[in-house]
Amino acid sequence: MFDQNHDISVLNSLIETTIDSIDGYQHSASEASNSRFAESFRDRASEREQVVAKLRDRVRALGGTPESDGGLLAAAHRQFLSLRDAVTGSDDGSIIAEVDRGESYLDSKWKAALEDTKLSDETLALIRQGYESVREGHRQWEAVNKGLSAAS
Predict the structure, then answer these.
(1) What total number of domains does the chain contain?
(2) Which residue of 11, 62, 110, 143 has the fewest C-beta atoms within 10 A of its own C-beta?
(3) CATH value at residue 110
């Protein structure tokens, strides 16, 4: 027998972190000078919104209330980045590096959830499905970041 409250807690943690990812992608899309990057950021944000919707549906099905906001630390981090960008200016390379860093963090959160042996099979299957988006985003921006670093 699984603990619904544990499933809800893990799902809400993933929702919160993934909302931070969406916000990060939307911010990055508005800052990027390369239209190809900006479009990729918007596409990834949209994809993550679909992942969050599915996680929220599962939380509701379990009788819980899904998270509606990202994390407080992420909001503070975005404010710091905005301040830094205003002072130093941002370029696509620094934006990609921040996206890659955020994707690494998100990837680790989702991997930890996948290793949680207390989750129900249905919740774990949903997390596995959502992780496909996270893993692909992490691979994409890690490769782009390495390519930009090698070119500099």
Answers:
(1) 1
(2) 143
(3) 1.20.1260.10
